[in-house]
Structures
1.
Amino acid sequence: MAAIQLIINNASYEVDVAPDTPLLWALRDKLNLTGTKYGCGMGLCGACTVHLDGEAVRACQTPVSLVGAKKVTTIEGLSPDNSHPVQRAWIAEQVPQCGYCQPGQIMSAAALLAKTPKPSDDQIEAAMVGNLCRCGMYQRIRRAIHRASLSQAHGAQAYVAPAYCGGASSGGSAAKGA
Amino acid sequence: MAISRRQFVVGGAVAGAGALVIGVRLSGHLVRAQESDAGAKKPAPNPFDAYVHVRPDGHITLIVAKSEMGQGIKTGLAMILAEEAEVDFNSVSVEQAETRPDIYAHMGTGGSGSTQENFTPLRQAGATVRALMITAAAAKWNVPAAECEAKKGSVLHEKTDRQASYGELIEAARKLPLPNPEKVELKDENDFELIGHATPRVDIPSKVNGSAKFGIDVRVPEMVFAVVARCPTFGGKAAHFDADKAKAIPGVRDVFEIPAMGADKFSAGGIVVVADSTWAAMKGRDALAITWDHGAAASESSEGISDALRTAAQKSGARLRNDGDVDAVLSNGAKKVEAVYEMPLLAHATMEPMNITALVRAGAAEVWAPTQSPDWVQGTVASVLGLKPDKVIVHTMLMGGGFGRRYMADFPAEVAQIAKVVGKPVQLVWTREDDMTHDFYRPATCHRLRGAVDASGHPVAWFHTLASTSIRGYWDPKADAAEGESGGARQLPYAIPNVRLEFNGVNSAVPRAWWRSVEHSFNGFVVESFIDELAAAAGEDPMKFRRSLLVKPPNWKPRFEYDPDPARLLGVLNLVAEKSGWGNPLPKGKGRGIACYHSFGSYFGEVAEVTVKGNDFRIDRIVAAVDCGQIVNPESVRAQTESAIIYGLSAALKNQITIKNGAVEQTNFDAYDPLRINEAPLIEVHLLKSTEDPGGMGEPALPPVAPAVANAIFAASGQRLRKLPFQFKAA
Ligand code: FES
Ligand code: FES
């Protein structure tokens, strides 16, 4: 096995794995970058989503030999301090439940917003349909992407979401007493 | 349940130096407290489940044996404690207890029970901290305690303008006798500043940057990875295997066989491949040449199971409820309705597949387990290795979903078998395929319902025959299987004079166990669909029909365990009707359906709105109303409601596990595809104010969603869907 060079989160690494090894397992098992998750190994769930030169890809379907000089960004490299607009929006909308799918969701959302700063609901669905969330936090994901989009455009204060309400369009679920 | 009020001294294991330690008994609504220093006498038997430590710097730590799987339990428990202790939310942290059943009497997380069990005892514990601090300050200043007030981690005496922080008072507080926790004064609910107020979850920041460590993220120096080739057929085993090719895969270190472990553990056994990485182990497994002995269950099929269930649903069975005379009514001239409902096996499909990491050394073991039942993991690993449980350290890791699957002992048994051979830290990883084909499935069921309405439109008979590949039938074939499957069917809340419930079990080799909301997932669908059918037969509006049957007599008492309070059910029915605009006209092709249901101490009303078009239908929105008693964190209540509804919709619309030649046919998310973002309807959640004890939240939003959708489709199209997952065809 020849060592393979990878540029991950702006640092360069050498991994000694078979060339057909998916990037997912090189990250997790060889480089201890465990933020990128395994969910299906077949490109069906999106838990392993990372960026290759800014493009969202499934790390379980990307052999390390094909990464070449492309820059890999994982969830650990999205920001040093949870300050990426998507991360901030994810916290504001309290998106994660168990949290296991969320690195993949966040990487898909960040790639979408980089290309499409103001996505429509349909564009959000198209970009996120490959990311399963077994905890079912989909409406929070939708809301958080809209929030991140607005905060990217106008600064963090611009988007006043109906916080913790049932649905973005419901205008809040006037909770009786709570 | 009562224990003596003797001073209980905690050993050094849990007592921090100089800290005030209070033991809390969570399950029996009792707090008995003490203070401590190390060097205590042997505390046996230990009555406590959790401990509150007030440290000399004033920080409070709750050490509790509850696992986090996304339900926000750590945030909720900290809120309750901080509220009564009168400290900032941020001065309380919740720590996962070590797995020491000798110190923590009760360790499981499930049955939607975490908030339910802990609410009152934790309030009492917090109030005890507050009372001790006030007493200590009053003595120090020589003023009446009644003139002192606790606020934000300090005691104040306004008259003399004095103030002391809890940290300053701790030394004195530790020496005080403990007040009777049953008698400490709890705060007035109107004064709550945390309980009932949306509070951001403490676990969320670590879940947006990859730093949250799940079980599968455990990395221990020198760790290796293992996967197991299990016989696809339940109960089968390897007749012969050849490992030469597997061993030639770079990174593969070892290949060996482990036997199946039998009842309780129910691990399948198989051929283990150990390697330097998960990928190498998986490739090694692919390269194994195995001849399987498929065993006795190789002829099982879903068709066979369904046929057996349908036959069983036609026969009379164990009678679990029998009011009045159903036979007489069903044989007379009343208007009769008969329907058969069917539900498939289901997999949990947690997002993080099963995994567990272990290190076995001479006479001891250490385990890192994403588990809902750390004490069971400990016992299992100990029994496989022939060790005493106290020689097994279990670290409870974050779980990428539990839903009941992570209660089980199969993967813990396997890792013990493997780690014993490997002699190094080893992480056992289940691939998605392993996870889906070797789950403990939600039982498959068939229900025959017979009902009657009289000439005035009042329902007069309800006869439910439930046939199930029951959970208990798998775990303990000698046990009475009926009890475990009847929840929600036996507690039929509607005022119908003649009611009968009968049960018949069907055997199968397919493993079964608890799946989110357990038997309520099928009984809820059947009860709330059939009441809708009776409403239609009576020509009544389904909401008004239910309303007229939710009657609470003046001296109502629960007849069965977990009997719902009809008034609370009516409360959520009314609220959801109001919020959904029930009764407002809808355009053609659209329909609304309603369901209300109680499980795990919480009440849900749900309305689905659907649009039917050709061979297809779409869910436009789900409106939910919840009465879960006293709400701790409304934020978590909403999130868990959304979660359980989506999980229930996955089952209603898409998912089923089928069996062919004794094995599961679905192996990954291509064939068992949970709901995705483009299929997820808008969900609105409305909370009912209540001062009742908190109910569970992980599960109870699930049962009513499938019937609400089915009833909506009926309203929109006239078509009754009685089989899950729904197969809708244009009329
Ligand atoms: S693990 Fe890569 S898409 Fe599921
Ligand atoms: S948050 Fe649990 S799977 Fe998405």
2.
Amino acid sequence: MRLTLHVWRQAGPRAAGRFVRYDVPDASPDMSFLELLDVLNQRLITRREEPIAFDHDCREGICGACGMVINGRPHGPRRATTTCQLHLRSFRDGAELWIEPWRARAFPVLKDLVVDRSAFDRVIQAGGFISVRTGSAPEANSVAVPKQDADLAMDAAACIGCGACVAACPNASAMLFVAAKVSHLGLLPQGQPERARRVVTMVAQMDAEGFGACTNHGECMAACPKDISIDFIARLNRDYLKAVASGKPQAARANGGDG
Amino acid sequence: MELRARLPAGPLAEKWERHRAEIKLVNPANKLKRHVIVVGSGLAGAAAAASLAELGYAVSCCCFQDSPRRAHSIAAQGGINAAKNYQNDGDSTFRLFYDTIKGGDFRSREANVYRLAEISARIIDQCTAQGVPFAREYGGQLANRSFGGVQVSRTFYARGQTGQQLLLGAYQSLARQIGMGTVKMYPRTEMLDLVVVDGRARGIVVRSLVDGAVTTHIGDAVVLATGGYSNVYYLSTNAKGCNVTAIWRAHKRGAAFANPCFTQIHPTCIPATGEHQAKLTLMSESLRNDGRIWVPKRKGDTRPPLEIPEDERDYYLERLYPSYGNLAPRDIASRRAKQVCDEGRGVGPGSHGVYLDLRDAIARLGHRVIADRYGNLFEMYERITAESPFERPMRIYPAPHYTMGGLWVDYNLMTTVDGLYAIGEANFSDHGANRLGASALMQGLADGYFILPYTIGDYLAQAKLPPLDASHPDVRRTEAEVSDRVERLLAVGGRRSVDAFHRELGRLMWDKCGMSRSAAGLREAIQRIRVLRDEFSSDVYVAGKGADLNQALEHAGRVADFFEFAELMCHDALHREESCGCHFREEHQTPEGEAKRDDERFGYVAAWEFRGVGEPAVLHKEPLEFETVHLAQRSYK
Ligand SMILES: Cc1cc2nc3c(=O)[nH]c(=O)nc-3n(C[C@H](O)[C@H](O)[C@H](O)COP(=O)(O)OP(=O)(O)OC[C@H]3O[C@@H](n4cnc5c(N)ncnc54)[C@H](O)[C@@H]3O)c2cc1C
Ligand code: SF4
Ligand code: FES
């Protein structure tokens, strides 16, 4: 199949970027989207041009490294599919594709399609964990967890931290990502002691990183490759209000308390 | 070089307890002054970095991905073993130990494996407490399944995303420490060399993958948790970035490399579709619990699978191994698949495939149960192949997956370089010549949470480590060598891309040092590797600059190391004149085509000492003694 690509090329964080047009006359529908870029890059190399930089690693839709906006949609047109899992059979022959990096203030572009998502790591560092020292855990089956709760926690925990939700949101909000972690841990008995503190510190860090506010557009869920449900945002909001109302978290140190 | 395994004395079941009691402890007030550098943030690295920081050490950790959460461990699907015996089906520490020794075809150390089995149960406790959402039964208790090559149900899982959930647990513990300032994290940072001063590992030289800056980190001990080297085959189930660089560089600085030829080929992967193929995708082996593997009885039978009647199908694993059937160990399942394909009975494009058929299970258990068990795997398969496993059998083929070989380590997980440790897939320790399913996650976490944090103290408490700074001549020399290597790669200015070279090397390794090996093939491979390696250094083209985000350059450095390493791998395979586990030498098989082990001559760990690129490495043998398990030919008949 023949494809025309317009790829965002940007030499560095401070350089100006622009779309560059590339024609790929002989793509195969069995190729993944990243294999298409591989093939194109091989050609650029033979022409002694710099290949297109893009993040990727597992190529199985699980590491969350890959991600680009394809014709305005993060991870492209297929529902619940990462860019690396997207195959060209999802496009028609002759299609014209505009490929750009995630666009968000909190995710500055480093080069071409590569962005800096370390803001997500800092949000987790602020409270996205259960404080349990190695070796101090009780026997695993001493706390029963209803299957329903475990399953729902797993639904939330499936987030791969790719950032598509942020890229899709008109406000560049990270609410779906944060809500997924708050819900995952908040649904389990092990996560209860820190539940109030966690939601407050994570939300505070999210704001500090420059992510926008959530105004319930729902674009995040539509773009999410792991089908993380927007219901988790409602859950976060409930937890947040409760935590703030109870006044507990004010006493908490931001970074996880005592070691 | 001397191999001192430092195995504790005493009965097997008491060795670890006793050893722990005898380990020297670092005075709490001194811990903060001890700086440990952990390279890698997969299960092993993240668990170690977090646990060391909890103990009070000053820790630095680096990884090449943009976040520690993306390490390759994230991709593990099937599960993690632990001898909890929750199913009351007769499991025990001893049975897990025994299965692992036998599964590894008697090429691992009893003491290490016993310790692993002993620790396994605590890993599940730890991960559950961290909030890992393991699968549960309706009563709220943890669920298990049975997994590849064993007859008890001891595998814990989180849907098909066990590695992801375990890694997120470790990542979150690490994140907590980073937030508290006890771990300094360096993502997008690649280790390119080891700094050795006065015979001790004292730091690493790294290159920033954002701006290309080459710098040195100095510390009191270095822990390599950098994963496996399956990407020497180019096409593998590993993430694209997996590499041998860190452990190869350490090898060149004095760390012995053990059993490099022990590489596992996983039987259930999705076959390649064409030249553009960038990597292979694993289908979890758990499918073999309910799926039946077959090919047409007749050569060149190209009918669609549903038109092939029952009596014209060859369920070859069930036929050859009646007691284990489709659950035969990985090496056997892979080799038999290759064999039926070589006979011309393979299916799908290029006849490189066999069927994995869930039809009978769907009929027996119903669509819903199967969808519940394998829904996400089916979805993944369908996405890649555009075929639904509910409608037609899946096509699978073996692919490189895991490397049992790695840096040689003693019981404390220290390499032959003082102060240099290797944990997780990067070391050689526990899986012998073949790893059982769901045991890598267990080993990575055992090393990272429960072994290294204690054993490293023994060294740090006793070693005299004078202060060191970046101006030390050994440090400056190592740093200069790294910069020089980077510059040389950029300066070649040849005609062929890095990727083209990597593919060619990979194909060669797959053909000659893959599922089956012969002396003639290995000799030929060594010659061709040398020729290719020379071509690489004179004809590769690496685009871009050094002081930049430059993925072609990153890849070039890794491929250059694969080229050096590949020769050692073939050399090891050539010297091991026996078939054991995944290492199948065509010259050493029974008339029925089963592997013929030679314990008399090869009942040892082969640890290689580096003597120069292209120079023959020196072999050191660590004899393996089996005091508890009787040496026996594996039989899964
Ligand atoms: C598809 C797949 C499925 C699997 N499923 C299972 C399963 O179900 N059960 C099971 O037990 N095992 C499974 N395995 C095996 C298991 O996942 C791995 O063996 C294990 O996760 C390895 O963990 P690790 O911590 O040793 O290394 P990794 O997770 O590979 O981590 C390596 C780390 O080192 C870093 N690194 C590497 N090189 C450098 C360098 N030069 N400089 C800086 N950093 C570097 C990386 O950034 C990364 O952080 C599976 C493997 C694959 C490929
Ligand atoms: S919520 Fe979905 S889109 Fe957002 S980071 Fe997680 S997986 Fe990606
Ligand atoms: S490359 Fe890992 S999710 Fe796409």
